[in-house]
Amino acid sequence: MKLATVFGLITVCTIAAAAGMALAEEASTGPYANENEYLKERSDRTTFIDYQYAVGLIRAVELQVSDQVEDKCLTNASALSARIRAQLENAGIAVYNEPLATSLPVNPRLVLTILGFKVGGACVASVSMSIEYSTDTNLGSLAYTNGFFRVLGQQVMWRNSSLFSRGGIVDDAILSQVQEWTDTLTADIAKAKRDPNVQKFLAVWPNGPTMTEREFQAMMEKEFPKVRQ
Questions:
Q1: How many angstroms from the chain centroid is the CA of residue 17?
Q2: Cβ-count burial of 89 within 10 angstroms (0-12 exposed, 13-18 middle, 19+ buried)?
Q3: What is the pLDDT of residues 177-228, one digit of tens each?
Q4: What one-character DSSP code corresponds to residue 167?
């Protein structure tokens, strides 16, 4: 059993004891003889992918461009989206402009946010570009809390940001910065794909087209049609 698992068991037992729980009266652990057996199998079958290599899992992204620039300081938001899309598609990363059915490390959201306005005749803009996906943390124990509690959250895999100030519009400056960031992102993805654990994951994970939210809804309506009155 790995050290992290041992610490996890100690923590669970300590919390359970402090709460006055009867450890001798364990709840059902399903198909496993006991929780140690379950944790050992889970540990033996777990491959850890380091945070710095997580972008290597990306096969598709949901592109979201949030243009919150006022005073006509930005006029080419569509060009930013087109530039990102072209570069990622050329790198073999599918880009979707509509919501995806799921948000996972293999198909996260690429969020480009631009905030800007004029100050004394000069345009000021803040730009950020991030890769995000929905995540959750499991707390609890099969035996001592009779199940797990999932804490939902959001994970940022990759992020860059910058601040611009120009006498006129900031179109060229932001387009150049987005170009640079997208180049860096595609290079980071290519590098991460050389990690052995990332390669192990990609070898077994399905490589079919990513399903959009619209396609998922259509599938559900087909499989489970509404009962007509």
A1: 36
A2: exposed
A3: 999 999 999 999 999 999 999 999 999 998 888 999 999 999 998 888 764 4
A4: S
- Give the pLDDT confidence of 63-106 residue by residue, as tens digits: 999 999 999 999 999 999 999 999 999 999 999 999 999 999 99
98: DSSP letter? S
CA distance 182 to 55: 13
152 and 103 Cβ atoms separated by less than 8 Å: no
| CA 47/CA 36 separation, integer angstroms | 19
pTM over 0.90: no
> Is the Cβ–Cβ distance between 192 and 100 less than 8 Å?
no
Contact (CB, 8 A) for 53 and 99: no
Annotate 29-61 with DSSP letters as a single string.
-TTSSSHHHHHHHHHHT-----GGGGGGG-SEE
Residue 161 CA to its chain's centroid (Å):
18
Distance CA 61, CA 111 (A): 10
